[in-house]
Amino acid sequence: MAAPTAYIVEAVRTAGGRRGGRLAGWHPADMAGEVLNQLVDRTGIDPAAIDDVVMGCVSQGGEQGFQVGRGAVLASRLPESVPAVTIDRQCGSSQQAIQFAAQAVMSGTQDVVIAAGVESMTRVPMGSTGMLFAQAGLGKAKSPRQEQRYPGVQFSQFMGAEMMARKHGFTRADLDAYALESHRRAAAATERGDFAREIVALEIETPDGPAIHDRDEGIRADSTIESIGSVKLLAEGGMISAANASQICDGASGVLVVSEAALKQHGLTPLARIHTLTVSGGDPVIMLEEPLFATERALKRAGLSIDDIDLYEVNEAFALVPLAWAKHVGADPERMNVNGGAIALGHPLGASGTKLMATLVHALHRRDKRYGLQTMCEGGGIANVTIVERL
Questions:
Q1: Among 172, 256, 269, 285, which has the highest number of CB atoms less than 10 A from its own CB?
Q2: What are the angstrom distances between the C-alpha of 188 and each of 184, 250, 331, 344, 382?
Q3: 112/53 Cα distance (integer angstroms)
Q4: Helix (H, G, I), strand (E, B) or coil at 3
Q5: What kind and span of H or E run contains 68?
Q6: What are the CA-CA distances from residue 52 to residues 3, 80, 99, 282 (Å)?
Q7: What's the angle, vertex CA 274, arms to CA 71 and CA 320, rounded to 5?
Q8: Could you please report the per-residue DSSP string of 87-149?
Q9: Could you give phi then psi for residue 334, rounded to 5 degrees?
Q10: What is the DSSP string of 155-213?
Q11: How many helices (H) and strands (E) would you count in the chain?
Q12: Annotation marks residue 91 as catalytic
């Protein structure tokens, strides 16, 4: 008997907002709540039929504290009967939300699950929850036993990025060239209207009055290799700069995952099916490298080769991650991040997983392609890989 299938019937995201930018006025629970509303409105499903909401969020403090997933439900038009949970797998939080939703459906325990994510990096700055404890003298993130296992080692994504660039033989020029291409692809996709189907437009207030936010704010269409190369390096003698790393971003996103029974019961049309899902851990020091090896394992599990995959979304936490990934797995760069990535579009941490899935699923439909693969590096040396098949 064939294993139960999990289907994606809708996938949406807000347009990214720059730090202190056009989405700064949106409370994260309200922003995520509007994504939930749109998933319901676009599919026409009875909101009372939703079995659960799995919300990714990294900085779970301040306005994103007190279980922001449940807060999003209460800020939406969903009934109080819809439960929610907030999860943290660092940058992969909402990609893991997709996988948890799919696992619930494939196990037969639930039929309709929303996987979503939110991060207001303006209102709840990255690392702010840990800094509050450190400033209060309430302990360190690295435990004594971790120190015994990794003596004198600092767990740092920036240090890991520099280590990885050197290990895989990339120069700053390579990273800057990739960053420029991210902006070019994102600008071209925007002008073609490629993001229109996936974007949830939000009402905002500007100095000139009310407006609609429906275009990614971080894209720099006028970028040049000279302007990117002029940005100061984050470490003396290093290769990483703010220009060849992901942008701080405000945003929310979500995917509606259902069973075959729910498709029939609610008259839903699937966009894709979840083909393969996996997660693995690796070196927490170099930290960003695990997507390379996780992808190899996922493809083997799926019975596919990298050549079978039509489009790849590899999160641009740093330019070197997709560059090293493509080099290691033998991927075609022309199929990778075809609409640009987080360097141009922003990386709203806990929202990036479902954000990338929204872009991937809709790109598969626009380009009439079959298989898509999504992966990203995550704090602590973890990586999720999700393979979907367009329907």
A1: 256
A2: 6, 22, 22, 12, 32
A3: 9
A4: coil
A5: helix 68-74
A6: 22, 11, 13, 30
A7: 80
A8: E-BTBTHHHHHHHHHHHHHHHTS-SEEEEEEEEETTTS-TTHHHHHHHHTT---SS-HHHHHH
A9: -75, -15
A10: --HHHHHHHHHHHTT--HHHHHHHHHHHHHHHHHHHHHTTTTTTEE-EEEEETTEEEEE
A11: 13, 13
A12: yes
Residue 81 reports pLDDT greater than 90: yes
HSE-CB of 2 using CA atoms within 13 angstroms: 5
pLDDT the model gives residue 133: 64
pLDDT for 195 = 98
The helix or strand, by DSSP H or E, that contains position 342, with its residue range, turns out to be helix 342-345
Catalytic residue among 183, 275, 347, 362: 347
Sequence-distant (6+) residues with CB within 8 A of 211 are: 22, 203, 204, 205
Q: How far is CA 8 from CA 61, 203, 263, 342, 343, in A?
A: 30, 27, 10, 23, 26
DSSP secondary structure of 14-33: EPPEETTSTTTTS-HHHHHH
pTM of the model: 0.96
Q: What are phi and psi of 192, to 5 degrees?
A: -75, -15
In the three-class reduction of DSSP (H, G, I as helix; E, B as strand; rest coil), residue 382 is classed as strand
Instruction: Supply 215's token pair.
Output: 């275009």
Neighbours of 41 (CB within 10 A): 14
CB atoms within 10 A of CB 242: 15
Phi, psi of 340 (to 5 degrees): 80, 180
d(CA 194, CA 233): 33
C-alpha 38/C-alpha 55 separation (Å) is 15
Residue for token digits 């139960």?
Answer: 4
Tens-digit pLDDT profile for residues 39-73: 999 999 999 999 999 999 999 999 999 999 999 99
Catalytic residue among 57, 213, 249, 377: 377
